[in-house]
Structure formats: C-alpha cells, structure tokens
Design a protein that fits this description.
By secondary structure, the protein is mostly helical. It has helices at about 1-10, 20-25, 30-40, 55-60, 65-75, 85-90, 100-125, 130-140, 140-150, 170-185, 190-210. Helix 9 (about 140-150) packs across helix 10. It is globular and about 50 Å long.
C-alpha cells in the first residue's frame, strides 16, 4: 500500500525544476540591460584607431589664419594677452559680429588721449590747455590712428563683413583704438595701454623717418 501511494504521488505530479536551475536559466535583469546598451550605443562610439591625439593634430585643430595673425600682432606690439578673447574682440568690426571692439575702442581712445596729454605736460608743465589738447588730438586723432594701424598690418587682420572695406580709415583706426583698450582691460591699468600706444606710434613714424634720411 505505501509503495503504491508513493508511485501514485510521483506519477500524478509534473516535474518542476529547482530554484537554482531556474536562476541559471534566466539571465539577470542587469545583464540584459547592459547587453542592450552595448548593442544600441556600441556602434556610435569612436574607435581608438581613428583618433589622432598627437600635439600636432591638436594644434592644427586649435589654430587658424586669424589666430596666427593675432599671435604675430602680439609679438609686434610687444604685449602678450592673458585673455586672447579680448584681442579677438578688438580685431572684430561691428559689421562682422555683435561681439566686436566698439566698446574697447572708446576706452582705447581715452587711454591714447590721456597718454598723449601726459607726455605733453611732462615735457612742458607750463603748456597751455590748448597745447595739451592739440597734442592729444594730433596723437590720437583718426589720421594718426589709421596710419599707425595700417603700419601694424591691421587691415589684413581685422574681421569685417563682405560689404565693409577693411582698409578704410575709420575701420583701421577703430580697430587700433580697440586694441589699446583691450590691453588696458587685459592688464587692468592704463600704463600698459599707453606703452602699446606709443609703440604703435613709433611703428607709424618709422617709414617717415627713413624717408627723411
């Protein structure tokens, strides 16, 4: 009787897999998600063999003719910008971008006039107000400003829109004044701006001095 009861029990109940075997047959949810993510995003990842991380490649990506011209300009004026973006803005005309050097030009004009007035009074403390004003006007005026800017090569550097002439006196003078203003902001003082202003004046006067000889 007992043996038949046991046989009946095993034959009437379907075989069930153990919990351990079920766990092995069913992959964990995290593994499924990881496999899915690898399948979706794996093809979009860049291959290491296609990337060039050499210094030369990085420099090529970062440099441009405009940046090279700005680097040469800094050597010419004898001032290295801590914030190169100021120089980029100074060499950008209002016709080219809303981020331009107009506000810097206002500061540059004031710094240039101040430098010229200071030199005039240093040379002659008894100079009349009209003489000081004339000295400041002549040194920082558009004619002298445009000549200095042209000598520094600004027409070939300043960025302008297609319908704007980069060699026009107002454009060149505005860029040079913005350059002087950018130096003042970058350095935090007008002294460095005055030094750059006088270096630019020397560059402008050099051809005349050579021709006079």
């Amino acid at each position: 009787m007992e043996k038949r009861h046991v046989d009946a029990h095993y034959t009437s109940s379907p075989a069930r897999p153990s919990k351990h075997l079920a766990a092995m047959a069913t992959p964990p949810l995290a593994a499924v998600l990881l496999l899915l993510l690898l399948t979706v995003f794996g093809t979009s990842l860049p291959q290491a063999s296609t990337l060039d991380s050499s210094p030369a490649a990085a420099e090529a990506l970062a440099s441009s003719p405009f940046d090279a011209a700005l680097a040469a300009l800094q050597k010419q004026i004898g001032y290295a910008f801590r914030s190169p973006d100021l120089l980029r803005r100074a060499m950008t005309h209002a016709s080219y971008s809303r981020e331009n050097g107009r506000a810097l030009a206002v500061l540059g004009l004031a710094a240039s006039q101040s430098a010229a007035a200071l030199r005039a009074l240093t040379a002659d403390r008894d100079a009349s107000p009209s003489a000081v004003s004339r000295a400041a006007r002549d040194a920082a005026g558009e004619a002298a400003c445009a000549a200095a800017g042209a000598r520094a090569g600004i027409p070939a550097i300043v960025r302008v829109a297609g319908g704007t002439k980069a060699s026009a006196a107002p454009v060149v003078c505005g860029a040079l004044r913005a350059l002087v203003g950018a130096v003042a902001v970058d350095n935090g003082t007008a002294d460095a701006a005055a030094e750059v202003f006088w270096r630019l004046q020397v560059l402008s006067a050099a051809p005349s001095a050579t021709a006079a000889m």
